[in-house]
Amino acid sequence: MLVVGGITVGAFQRSVLADSPKEYQVKAAFLYHFVQFAEWPKQAFSDPGMRIRICVYGDDPFAGYLVKTFMGKSLHSRQFIVQPRVSALDIESCHVLFMNRQIDVSQQEVQRALQRSQALTVGESEDFLKFGGMIQFYRVENNIRFAVNSDVLDQKDLHLSSKLLRLARIVKSK
User: Fold this and answer.
1) pLDDT value at residue 16
2) Mind listing the domains of the chain with CATH numbers?
């Protein structure tokens, strides 16, 4: 069992009510763990003191949980900064990018932003992985699970720990 920000996350899954505040509290904890088990290419951190930027594209469904989850924490001496609402132009400077289910990932503007980005992209729309996303939340009954598109991770030279991948449903683009 892992405890993050007062939330117990057992085996990276948790029973939640659909679209409840608790759902996004759990998803914020997932994002924190994704960061801990991710390795970005060196060029993603051009400055040794650069913070790890956690961004939300579109409306922020987290109601402050994302900020609370990352507040005061660091990874490999890098502090976190949470940006609860970024535009397509800001995506390039993000290290983790969350896209809620209202974002149409098939839109050209979103597709161009994803292509330029070095971010670990996490979304919840049904077609997120199909349109170039890396990690997609989905539900099985009332449990939050996640799928990973390993081809997109490879294209961006992003690596996730095998410990994390063992818990995911692996999807290939090809």
Assistant:
1) 47
2) 2-171 (3.40.50)
